[in-house]
Each structure stands twice: as structure tokens, then as C-alpha cells.
Amino acid sequence: METESEPYVRLATLRQLHQVMADMNTARSLADTLQTVADGIVSGLGYELAAVNLVRPDGDLVVAAFAGNSAAEALITGRVGSRASWERRLNMGEAWDDLRFIPHTEGWVLDDDDVPQWHTGGPEPRFEDEWHPADRLFAPMYTPSVKGSCGELIGVISVDRPRNGRRPGAWGREALQMYAFQAAIAISNARLRANMQRALVRLEREQQALRASEESFRQAFEYAPSGMAIAEMGGDQHGRILRTNDALCRLLGRPASAMRRYSFSDLVHPEDIGTLLRTSAEGGRAELRLGRRDGTYVWVSLRNSVVADAADGPRFLLTHVEDIEERKRRELQLAHRASHDSLTGLPNSAELRSRLSARLCQRPQSLPAGAADSLDAAYGEYPVDHPAALDGTGHGFDLHARGPYDAFDHHVHTVAPEAGTDDGTKGLAVLFCDLDGFKSINDRFGHNAGDAVLIEVARRLSRGVRDGDTVARLGGDEFVVLANGLGKADAQDLAVRLRNEIIQPVRVDGRAMRVGASFGIGWAHCGMTADEVLKSADERMYVEKRSRPKQHRRAG
């Protein structure tokens, strides 16, 4: 093409140019495309040297491909020029449409900037359009854009030393400009292909990792030694079990197909439904009982976490179910041992005081109305401890409590019958029982016989009271009965019935043994402590014991 005069261009030249452009679009990679662009300039456009400077992500340009001179290629390939230096070059010299030509008369100022360049020698031009060794010609490459505007700069083609020794004419300029335009398309397509290939490789790796993760999760889920379940989260089917592992099915004695018909709220013990509902969805923990197929319940620990199919996909509850039946059994045993007498199995002294204290608050029993109360009544206001603030029996709930008793807003206050009269008030009776003649049984027959008598007395006392009443062993041969909702006459009748039960003979190792019983009846009311209540009942028991002849105490 360099020997032809414009505008006469041989068909072979056009074919050669078409071929190098076709080669650009069939390269296998971005690197091959860049090298093909540089080689095409040398083979198809008639320049001896060509370099492709590619814009990096940081904006600077790197020499990505070079053609025409292996020594120069080794010298500058991979070197970087700053974006500012390149912008300076593209804004000086002569503009040949999209091309930029910097003649040697101006280009000397660029000799010391940081743009990689090569230097060629040669004689001074003999005529005006002859190419000078220091002349520079650049063809910027822009991303494809709408007609009439330039896209983003993606690189610059640098050329040198036309083979005909002359500056390119109109045909040469048009050919280089068209070539740079096609090169930009080819480079953009190569980048797109490279990005797509990287994305496909990344996607395949992610899918492989996902498949491996799903398989790991499946194996961990299916073969976990403790129960696992996946349940729906949100919507009308919230909590419905979607999938269970074998360990959970074995724990509850239910097949997986049957488990999918339930939610955990269907399986939980009725007393534990509140615990389940209070358990938060994410990170929630609870200890409760789940129903087995045979109708029994097993203690389990539930731990919930939220999993999702994708970042914005549906969410599910992953529930870990651990069997804690044995631990709960041991805990209950330890709690029972701490709160119950080891011999009789009755609540011990500490448990008795705990149950009694739970019924009492610090508010004293109601006092008669005074002048200040009458003034309050005139305005429809009463102190929180005034009888008018309660119901007719002195029991009730403080819905507007204020003052020092705010902690007892919903406490049902315990009151006692008036002393000396039976006014019909029902209260919490405390029956203090002391066995008469028990020491002689221990002395005559030994402690084993005494223990057998205590066990039988405990059984008779428990049999003689109502469900909900408390029979406790205070220690030694002393027992206490808490019976709520009794009047004075009711409490006295209960004491007589229990004494009649106790005085019946007790057979131990073939011997008939008898003990008597003395009962003192005390009354608990708010404002008293548990120790004060027990002391009051104990004193009444000793009054009752001293009032009976000694020879009749054992027989009752």
C-alpha cells in the first residue's frame, strides 16, 4: 500500500486490510487480540513500528503489544505511562480528525516525559511531507458509542516510520482511523469475552462450591447424632415442619412423612407452649417437652437459626433438637433432694418457708377506718391497703397500687380470722404438729423403728389433707400443715381428724406402736414473715400440749 498514489488503491491492498481486521475479531484472547492489532498495522497499513497502549483500571496506559522490532518490543512492552502525560500528547500537535500528529518541531518537549517511547534515527527531511524520525502519530481508541460522540478512551495506537517515508495522506489517515475504530471494537469484544469467561469460570466454581456445601449440609443434617428440622418461616404456614433427620424421628418415634404434618406448636407440651412462643426465631433457645408417638413427652433443648436459599430468597428455620431428658431427670432429682426430706419425701423446712413466704407480702393486715379514711372516701379515693380498696373478704388485686407496695400490684393478700371469734373469714391455716411419745419409741426400739413411725405418720398426714395443701416435715418429730381457705372451725376439725389418724397403732416388725400428737393452729397474714407464722403456730401447739394431762397426750 505504501507504493500506491492516492486515491488510487489496489484491490489487493483492500483485501489485505480486510484480512487483518478480520484477524482482530477472531483472536482467542484479549492478549492475542492486542498483538493482532499491532501486527496488522505493520502488515496491513504499511508502518514499520506499532504499539498498542491499553488503559489500565487506574487510568494509566501500559504498552500491551508491540510489532515491527523485537529489540524495541523487549525494551518497552509492559511499561506504563501516566494518564496526564498521554492527555498532554493527545491535546497538542495537529488534529487529523480523530488522529493526532505531533511533528518533530513540537515533539521535542515530550522527550523527557514518562510515556514509553522508542527513538529512531534517520536523515533530515528533504521535502515538506517527508517523515522525520522524531515525528509522532497517535490513533486514540474509544469504546463504541452513539453516532457523533466519543465513548470512553480504552487505548492509543502509536505508529512510526511509514514504509514509503512520507507522512500519510488522506487515504492513509482514513485507513488508520478506520483501523483504530475497528480495533476498539475488537478489544471491547475481547474484554467482554474475557469477562464472560471469567464470570463463567467463577460461576462454575461457585456452583461447585454450592453443590459441595449443599452436600456437606445434607450429610451433616441427615447423619447428625441429635435431632434436626427445617420449618417454614412467615406466612400462613409459619412453623410447619418441612424436613427432619433420622435422629429426630427416632427421638419422637414418628416417621418423617408424619412429621411433615406438624409444627412444633402441635408437638409441644401444653404447659410449654408459652415457652415456645417466647422463643425468638433467630438465635432462639428453649428447653421444653415434645410429644412422642406413644403419648409420652421428652425434654429437649431447641436452638433456632435462620437460613435462606439466596440473599433475597425465602427464609427457613433450622432447628437443632437435643435430648436433655437425662439431664432434666437429674436436675429434678437434685431439686427434689434439696427441697424435700430424705426420709419421708415431704417438703423440708426450707421448702415450707419458701411456700409460705410466697403467700405473704410486707403489707400489714387492714386496720379500721379513721378520720383520714372518711375524707378519702368522700372523694372516692382510698389508700391501697384500705379494706374498701379490696373485696368484701379483704382479698383482691390492687389495680392502682402506689406507695411502697408497688411490687405487689397483683398479689392476692392473705388475711386471718379475727382473734376470739369465728367471723366466717377464710384464711391460710398453719397447723404445727408435734408427736407425743416418739422419743420413747426411739429409746426402746431403736432409730429404725422410729424412722418407720415417722414415715407412716407422714403418709397419714398426706392422706388426710386436700389436694393443694402442704404437709412438711420441719425436723425431728415435728410436722407442719398449710391449708388455705379454712375458717377457724374448719381448721379445728382438720386438726382433730389428723390427730385421730396419727394415734392409730403403727405396726413395725410385728409390734404395734402408738404415738400421740399435739396440734397448734396459727394463721398467716400479709405483714408477717414465715418465721413469725411458724413461731405463732409453735407457741399455740405448746399451749395445747400443756393444757392436756400428760398421761393422755399419747392417746390424744
TrEMBL record:
**Which residues lie in coiled coils?**
189-216
UniProt keywords (A-Z) are: Coiled coil, Nucleotidyltransferase, Transferase
Name any one Pfam family assigned in the record: GAF
Task: Specify the PAC domain's residue ranges.
Answer: 284-336
EC number(s) stated in the UniProt entry for this protein = 2.7.7.65
Q: Which CDD domains match?
A: GGDEF, PAS
Q: Which residues form the PAS domain?
A: 213-272
Give the protein name, as stated in the record: Diguanylate cyclase CdgB
Q: Which organism is it from?
A: Streptomyces chiangmaiensis
Q: What is the lineage of its organism?
A: Bacteria, Bacillati, Actinomycetota, Actinomycetes, Kitasatosporales
